[in-house]
Amino acid sequence: MGWSFGRRRPTTYLQGVAVEQYPAQAPEARRGRALRITEIGEPVLHTPARDVETFSTPELARLIDDMFTTMEVAQGVGLAAPQVGVDLRVFVYDVTDDRGDRHVGHVVNPVLDIDTTAELVTEDEGCLSVPGAYVPLARRSAVSVRGVDQLGAPVQLEATGFLARCYIHECQHLDGVLYWDHLDADGQADALRQRDEERADILAERREIAIELDKRPAEYPDAPAGGR
After folding, report:
1. What does the pLDDT look like over 12-62, one tens digit per residue?
2. Is residue 94 a contact partner of residue 71, using CB atoms and an 8 Å limit?
3. Residue 93 lies inside a defined structural domain of this protein
4. Tens of pLDDT along 68-108?
5. Is residue 157 part of a domain?
6. Which end of the chain has fewer CB atoms surrounding its CB within 10 Å, N or C?
7. 170 in active site
8. Nearest to 61, CA basis, from 152, 155, 169
9. What CATH number did the domain enclosing 126 receive?
10. What pTM did the predictor assign?
């Protein structure tokens, strides 16, 4: 008989609840379409999104499916509805946390509660709407998020570390705030410089991944649509 000490099997949490089994590709990502991700400077990214008022609709289900697919194509860990051009308070996520556990789900009309007593942690942070740019940014290391799912059922999430950073990032998107807005002038300039250098390669990679997943690639303009 073999013995194993100190090893822990990673857990998958769906909508904050542990599940025994979950596929490598989220079902929503299989069903959805790859959409163009909006870029910094486009008004929908810089305007607070509207609350979702009607639940259990085909339109909301389709939006969430498309967001999961778009996030997978872009190799992201979170995506907010304004990043696909929709001004609704919805975000999706598929994140592996600091312990190796996977967290998958979506939140509609999220309310973010940042623990202001938690440690401030500085790490490189990026955004799919500023492709290729990563800049150090301090974030609080513990948060909670409450909201509902697409059917209107309550969702409650608790997070620390990298997962907390993800939830803060996505919830702030819905307030019209990008991580870029938290940077000083030098950090903003550095992010845009990196974006200008990396954008073409990042978009080419998104196209290749979409094709590999048997999805129609999104079409992007040659220059950033936001004009920055």
Report:
1. 999 999 999 999 999 999 999 999 999 999 999 999 999 999 999 999 999
2. yes
3. yes
4. 999 999 999 999 999 999 999 999 999 999 999 999 999 99
5. yes
6. N
7. yes
8. 152
9. 3.90.45.10
10. 0.95
